[in-house]
């Protein structure tokens, strides 16, 4: 009779530790976040943290894994709806901006912290690489759908990597400006220009007609 409540308490404690550690690591970085800081912030003893995760690196890997799972689960299907390139591109960029807005801490951890962190273990680095590989595959399939590039995978790959570099740059910018947003308007112009450069038909949509600010999705 007591086993289930004990398991529930253990799950709640684990979640509380991960919530706190994810917040602290996204704000201060891995190296500057100590076990004692996590303990003080979540109200659980250091012994409980070690019991669940064994080490600070164990916490870091678990935080990254949870952020990766949440972000990838939130991504829309790679088959982008729309009657033409303009509609599909606007839909795609709205979805990217929306995921970025709804998961700011996870994006910062996986794109920003994972890119600049030098003190993480091989397991943490592998977690970040697994996330990036999955995200790149989704972005590649999405831009292939937007621009009808099923027979030109190399162009889809270039446009997908460019999109993710823009997102990565914004994630790093948030270390210095927490209010930094993903500027999807300029990204739209750039993607149209890159597609045109490779001779991809864009349905008569000139890059200069694209909006100059970020796509807004509302709350």
N-to-C order of helices and strands = HHHHHHHHH
**Main sheet?**
none
Taken together, the total number of domains comes to: 2
Proportion of beta-strand residues: under 5%
Q: What is the overall pLDDT average?
A: 82
Task: Please report the first level of CATH classification, the CATH class of the largest domain.
Answer: Mainly Alpha
CATH topology of the largest domain: Tetracycline Repressor, domain 2
Distance between the first and last residues' Cα: 43 Å
Q: Any idea what the CATH superfamily of the largest domain is called?
A: Tetracycline Repressor, domain 2
CATH architecture of the largest domain: Orthogonal Bundle
Globular, elongated, flat, extended or rod-shaped: what is the shape?
elongated
Distinct helical segment count: 9
Radius of gyration: 20 Å
Helix content: 55-70%
Low-pLDDT windows of residues: 207-219
| Class inferred from helices and paired strands | mainly alpha
């Amino acid at each position: 009779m007591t086993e289930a409540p004990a398991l529930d308490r253990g799950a709640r404690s684990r979640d509380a530790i991960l919530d706190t550690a994810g917040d602290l690591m996204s704000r201060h970085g891995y190296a500057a976040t100590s076990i004692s800081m996590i303990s003080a912030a979540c109200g659980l003893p250091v012994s409980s943290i070690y019991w669940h995760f064994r080490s600070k690196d164990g916490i870091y890997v678990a935080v990254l894994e949870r952020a990766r799972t949440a972000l990838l689960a939130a991504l829309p299907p790679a088959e982008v709806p729309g009657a033409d390139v303009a509609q599909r591109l606007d839909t795609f960029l709205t979805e990217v901006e929306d995921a970025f807005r709804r998961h700011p801490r996870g994006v910062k951890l996986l794109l920003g912290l994972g890119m600049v962190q030098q003190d993480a273990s091989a397991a943490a680095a592998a977690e970040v690489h697994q996330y990036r590989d999955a995200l790149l595959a989704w972005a590649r399939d999405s831009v292939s759908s937007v621009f009808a590039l099923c027979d030109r995978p190399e162009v889809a790959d270039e446009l997908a990597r460019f999109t993710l570099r823009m997102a990565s740059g914004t994630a790093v910018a948030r270390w210095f400006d927490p209010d930094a947003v993903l500027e999807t308007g300029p990204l739209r112009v750039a993607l149209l220009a890159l597609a045109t450069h490779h001779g991809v038909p864009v349905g008569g949509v000139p890059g200069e007609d694209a909006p100059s600010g970020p796509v807004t999705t509302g709350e």
